[in-house]
Amino acid sequence: MRTRSFPNLWRRLCRNRLAVTGLVIILLVILSSLLAPWIAPFDPFKQDLSLTVKPMDRVHWFGTDQLGRDILSRVLFGSRITLTISFISVCIGMALGSVTGLLAGYYGGRIDGVIVWMTDLALAFPGMLLAIAVIASVGPGMEGIIIAAAVYSTPQFIRLARGIALLEKRKEYVAAASCIGETDFSILFRYVLPNCLAPLAVLFTLQMANIILIASGLSFLGLGAQPPSPEWGAMLSQGRTYLQIAPHLSIFPGIAIMIVVLSFNLFGDGFRDALDPRMRV
Amino acid sequence: MGAYIFRRLLMLLPLMIGITLVSFLILQSVPGDPARIIAGMDADEEMVQRVRHQLGLDRSIPIQYLNFLVNVVRGDFGQSIRTGHPVVKEVWPRFLNSVRLAIASILIAFLFGVTAGVIAAWRHNGPVDYGVMLLTLLGISTPTFWSGLLLILIFSISLGLFPSGGAQTWRHLILPAVTMAAPSAAIMARMTRSSMLEVLREDYIKTAWAKGQTEFRIFINHALRNALIPTVTVAGLQFGYLLGGAVLVETIFNWPGLGWLIVNAIFSRDYPVVQAGVMIFAFCFVLVNLFVDILYTLLDPRVSYQ
Amino acid sequence: MKQASPPPLLKVSDLRVSFRTETGILRALDGVDLQLSQGEIAGLVGETGSGKSVTGNAIMGLIPKPAGHVDGGEILFEGEDLLKLSREALRRIRGRKISIIFQDPFTSLNPVHRVGDQITEVIKLHQPVTRKEATSQACQIMEMVGIPEAPLRLRDFPHQLSGGMRQRIMISMSLACRPRLLIADEPTTSLDVTIQAQVLDLMVDMNRKIGVTILLISHDLGVISEICQKVFVMYAGRVIEWADTKRFFENPLHPYSQGLIACLPRIGDRQSRLKTIPGIVPDLRDTPTGCHFHPRCSLKVGICQSKRPLFEEIEPLHWVACHRWKEIV
After folding, report:
1. Which of A260, B29, B74, C29 is most buried, judged by most C-beta within 10 A?
2. A261 close contact with B: CB closer than 8 A
């Protein structure tokens, strides 16, 4: 039983200028990352030791890094890494988390108790620390970040889905459905899940923002993407040594991170506002 | 009240045990042979065996965990593999440094965040409100390891006002604290603003106007006093995140905190340090949350501890 | 016609208030006229949406901006037009000369302040007293209002008190500075029937003891008939009839008032269906022209649609705004 109508939601979303701006930027970023091989002026891995740490000029719009690589190209390619890692992690988090949360909330009992304990445990570690602890176990690298980010993300989805399941299962239409012989599975999927979709989507967007920050933070610390990968956090870290003479090595990757995270936050905020039936006066 | 605190601490026990379990499992889930990793890749078999026996890795896992747990309770976190000193000696002073940084950050964040939130609510839907909302959005979207570098660039390198590394004087504290405070301040500004807007819609605010109270007093004594309650809770949570998330800022500013130590320990495979560090931060976080809960009962007279 | 007595304490003339909404401008008050003399207890009765609460708020200067806007009219209190006063001057009148109490005593009291502090707050706002003096004044008014063990109650929080007690606290707060006018906006609606009676008796008592004029706003004709000496009937943003209470109930003149009274079920009446007034309350974003009631009136004629009826005194102290009062009488 849908309690929110989608065309209404869409209309409200379009009216929120900030959300639209966020969405547009996200789409632009995705587009540029998909087209990177064609629009990037240089090969992001090609070194030119005669042109190291050059400032911004007409050839290299963002300058070159310590190995002579074009920063603009690296930033463009870096978006692929960032978006891919984050998207995969949040998808895993959402899939695992919402299913677990729904089951826990709906069935209750001891399963619920155990899941709540595990979720509380995961949330007892401050986000970055949890991710670092996971990396400590599985080792640095791309797979490490994805696992760490997924571990960070899943508990939030569990909490959300469980909360909604707890609310919905008390409602009368659920009792009615089971009276007419619907299986639990069917009830969960046909009735409870659709009510979760919108808040889950909002959480997805906001988690993307968080995960991008965490993933690039891990890479910055050296625990994530390894050189010569053009991951933004790693680039920033390498640029640190040259901060005094060539700050642009670190500034541009940082701006990139900020813009992408900002756009997800903008869109997520607008999305959440559009969902809220209390329209802002 | 004391009995209430005691009861809450007891309820936290399963969580605390879980934290030690997670910490214990860090070492266990390392791919490969932990003993060999710790002993070093070029160590001979005898050395590896010795390390294995020393760390008790030749016992069964449940026994290992029990030993681990008993040691933790006794305050014995083992010895650092890198330096050979007791882990506690290495970890404790670093932990205190992290706490100093976190406290400075949360104070700055609270001050600026709450003020900004109140002003935004006061001038709701005006340019100031939109400005604050935009600023907070920037605040939560900016990676701290980048804003820290920017601050170093501007204030250390260009203007030479503040040092860029180390922790000797109070001047060393300012830039890292401000860097960390920014996202927290943004979150608290948003929280305060939305909380204030909700409170200002309440009937008792109308009563205050009807009594002939001044606008300032209505905002501060009546509205803020109520709106601060959820904000303080958020501040407590933020403090916990500041403790754990400081690692990035500590790295940038060479601040000798626990986060930095943990990351270094990961690189040098100094697992006892990693375990101890993770546990201490987690315990701290849990205790801070408990403290915030108790604070809540003190701030809101409708909530009584039972 | 009797000679007019001393100038009225409160005289509202042609008060117009509108609200800006997403779907249009809502004319909440479209020319309200009221007058109260010192010492009276008057009732302002109307359905939900008639504008009675807005009237009360407008007198206090509590219309929420920027959505709300006073479009015109006069509110003469003790000879001064409240609409022309500065913010600061108005602030000094609120709580001291004119007070208002609201419907829900629970949400109207600040949950984190002690009840005693909330009462002394209004005293200290308007009088240069010490804390001790303010506290003793608070206890004084609380005792007058019938709150037992007043000094102990001072330290209570609102959630610790019962509904009736909370309303008494609200009344104490509003009367602490001995105002000349008390506006009571649905003061008994959210209370039990037994407590309702107590609160009404209390208001009559205060009117006698302190001499405070009371404007009782309610949708409940029963409550109005209990304690009010005068009644004003509101419909769709206008006052359409006002009279001495006894005369009003004996002889309602406006078709709307007649409908209202006819709707009251009487014990002993054998009815299968409750009587209603046909039609619905107009949308205040699109009010009818002329007399607001004409779409639902069985006595409607052409002029009712084009011209707004003015007040005429049909019998002593009985005024009605209807083009067809001659046919009714």
Report:
1. C29
2. yes
